[in-house]
Structures are given as structure tokens and as C-alpha cells.
């Protein structure tokens, strides 16, 4: 009875029956007389077995994860696998349930009542075996296979040809997506389920692909950590179909999963897959290079067949090395070069080499790949040195590309490079797009605004810190004596912490001011775009007040010290820059003057204050 069954022959389950099917409560079905079990269906045509086997429990997932951790501990492993059998029956049932292994009692008793449920399909064309395999119920898979043989008077130990064919017929039933139970088991990744399904299968049977062009071997390889599963499939069948969608192979799938163990297992049986290309001309090595984080996979593939490093794809002629450079995966680049040094001579269809793609990624250090440190050994690559002088697209060397992308001058070459980068970013490998290429987008005006804002903030912090230093919390001792003018809280730990924190705040803020006024100008003046935007200031200015004086003098100077051509600087931007520095200069002058007339500790008398002020101004 299939999914095409007329609606009038279907009896939808009521709430109590559905709940009983979910929980595996056979008593409910035993107590109800006259039930037509083969007619009880859900709107999706799931029968009682489908409903029971498709039920998921979060606890099952959690228990299985915890149990996998405990496997490394012998005592705990025994506890979870053996000792629980001696528990109270209700606890045993609970543990069995949360382990995700449906107790076979319910399934077996339902099949005894209605054997036709075994091969019934739901709206998706799936039998109970499909559902059990998809959810990893190994005990139920074995039971369904055993019941299929027993229903035809067979014995699993000595099956006749008729019984064996009956079992194989059930194993090969396809759903609407052309998935057999083995496809579902491979997707689940349960080794015990796969073992049960393969036990009675014909080694010469070609397990073909489903509608998505996925074979069981491809599906298993796509799942990370599937080495044992792949071994079972490859050992069972004499000629295992290995194809996948878009012309991929199981080796492509293992490279996508980043599973070096799966790569080794597949190559032991199918070593010729290293140079197999998908419909875009990509080999498994292309996948590993593009996706990144697969150093061990790259190593396994190249150790098997180094010639894969020289293969270019269909669209751009990109080799795996160029793809790794395009993604800026320098570890992968180093790994490929260490195993295949001369593959760096290969260029793409536009003549772009390894260093061009590294230049696109704004990695100046990567351009110095003439000397690469690999595994602690410094290796000099002669071919890489030569690449520095080779012009690719637009006749530009990698160094010229690097400089052009960072130039403030907008020229035709720069426009062509940016158009090429937009085209490159639209590429993808295995549905994984190229990583976005971030070009330098520094705005001179934005840098100036940011710096001026930093100056104001730093000056404010310095003001507050200095004011706090001369107006100490708690006041000062006023009694005459050796301790006169000493802070009252000097022995308190909190006061000491305040002094340290305040001193650090003052030092850091003054350092920030000093850096912004001087050091950054020196550093950035090495860059071409920055040297055209800064004014040369008088050097040898000492102290914070000296910097404030320079900032004020910049405002009134009629001529700069040296004539500077400013083709891209507007008067407005310079005015904003000077205004910001005037604010800082004013704040610094205020703090300095306040410090001069409000000395820490105070004065002995009013006469002493007047004498100090007179001394200050007479200087």
C-alpha cells in the first residue's frame, strides 16, 4: 500500500493512538478491538512504524554525546553499556529510550499484528526502513531485515535465494528522491546501521546516485569523521559509485569536509581521483586550497599525486596555489610550495601570478615571499624572486599593483584593477564565494578629524588628572610642623591606589598628545599620501607646552618653514585641523597656569601667596 492510496481507505489516527505510537505503548492497541492497523495514517501517510521511528528526543542527542566522551574511560563505558541492564525495569526503559535506540518490542508486536506495514511507504515514498536508517536506530534496522526474511519463512543464518532476494528488494526501495536506505544511513553516519544494511547486500550491486546526484559513498565522505564508514562501503562493493552533484567525486566531498583521514581511506582504494575535475574544472586540491584550514588535506593529496598542483580550472586557469593566494591563506600557500616549489610559475589566463593575488590582499609582508619560512627552515625560492618582475594583467608587476591600490591618485590602471577585483569576488568554488577583498579606503579628511578628536579627549583627561593631583581628596594637613601640607589620607590604601591611577592617566594622556603631535607625523610621512598632507613643523620642541606653542604659531605664521605643494588639500580642512589644535593648546595653557598659581600643599600664609605670584610674573 503506497502513498497513492485513495483517501477513503485511510483512517486518520486520533490523539490517543498517535500518542501511543510515539511512545511505543502496545497496550493501547491491544485494548482496542477492530482496529485496521494498515489503514491508520497521518496526513503525510505515515503509518504506525513511521511515527514511532521518526520521533526524536533531545535527551537522546545529549546522552549519545555524553556517552561518546565516556567511551575513553573503561569503567564509565561498562557502566553505561552493561551495568544499566541490572537496573529497575522502568529505569532501564528510560535509559534505552534516551539512548535513541527504540525498543524493538513495539515494532515487532505491531508487525506481528499487521505484516503489511513493513513495506508501506509514506507520502515521500519512504518505508519504515528508510526512517529507521535516517534516525540511526540500528537495532530496529536489524529487526526489520530479520522480520522481512522471517515473513517468508527464512532464517538469517541460512537464507535461501528467495529470502535473500526479498531482503535485497526491501533494501533497494527508493523514495521520491531516489534515496535507498543506505543513502539515509550514510547521511546519518551510524556505522552499525550501515553494517546491518550491507550484511545481505550484493557486492556487485551498483548503488547509483539519487536525484541530487549523490551516491552513498559521496554522502558519507561529505560528513566529517566518516573514515570507518567509508572503509565499510569501499570494502563491501567491488565497484563503488563515487559520484556527486556538479561532477564531483567522493574525494571532492572529503576535501570539502576537511577530513584527512577520509582522504587517506578513499585514496587507498581510488587513487586515480586526485585529478578528477568537477564541471568547473576544479580538482579536490582546488577545493582544499580555496576553503582553507585544510593543511593536512593538502598534504595528503599532494603526497599521493603532486601533478594536481599544476592543474588550472576552466574559467580562469587558476591553480590550487593561486586559489590559496587569492584567499590569502598563507599557510596553505607555504604548504603547496614546500611540496611543489616550481608550481608558482603557473599563471592564470590573465597572466596574474602568485604575488599579484597576494598584492590584491594588501599583504605587503606576503610580497616578500622570495624568502619563506616553512617548518622552521628558511628556503630561498628563485622562481618566486622572478615573479616580482613579471607583469600580468595591464602590464603591471605585483609591486606596481600593490602601490597602485594604495595611491591617492586615481588613474586608469587603478580603475582596471578594481574592476578585475570585483570580477574575482564574484567567483566561487563548491558554492563557497571568494573572501571579500578589502581595499585601502583611508580618507585624509577622516584621519584629520579622528586625530583632532583624540587630541581634545587626551587634553581633557590630562586636565582632570592634573587638577586631581593638586586638589587631593581629603585635603592637606594645616598644622605647623614637618608634616604640614601632607595629604590627610596618605596612609590609606585607597588613596595610594588613587595616586597611582591618576598618575597613569596623566602619563598616558600626555603620551597620546605627544604621539599625535610628533611621532605619527614622522611615521606617516614615509607614506606618499601622508607626506602631501602634513606641514613640516619646527623640531626640537620639548614638553607639552612647547607642542602647544607650535600649534598656536601654526595659526599666525605667514609662511611655512618649507614650501609644500598641497594639490589635494583644501583650506577648510587645514582650518579645521588648526582649530582643533588651538583648543588643545588653550587647555594645556590653562592647566599649566593653574598648576603654577595653585601649588600642591598650599602656602604658609597669604603673604606667601602674593610673594609667589609676584615671583611668577616677574620672571
TrEMBL record:
SMART domains: ANK. InterPro entries: Ankyrin_rpt, Ankyrin_rpt-contain_sf, PGG_dom. The chain crosses the membrane at residues 453-476, 497-519, 582-603. Residues 445-529, 573-607 form the PGG domain. It is a multi-pass membrane protein. Pfam families: Ank (PF00023), Ank_2 (PF12796), PGG (PF13962). It comes from the Eukaryota. It is found in: Membrane. The keyword Nucleus does not apply. Keywords: ANK repeat, Membrane, Repeat, Transmembrane, Transmembrane helix. Its main location: membrane. The keyword Calcium does not apply. GO terms for cellular component: plasma membrane. This is PGG domain-containing protein.
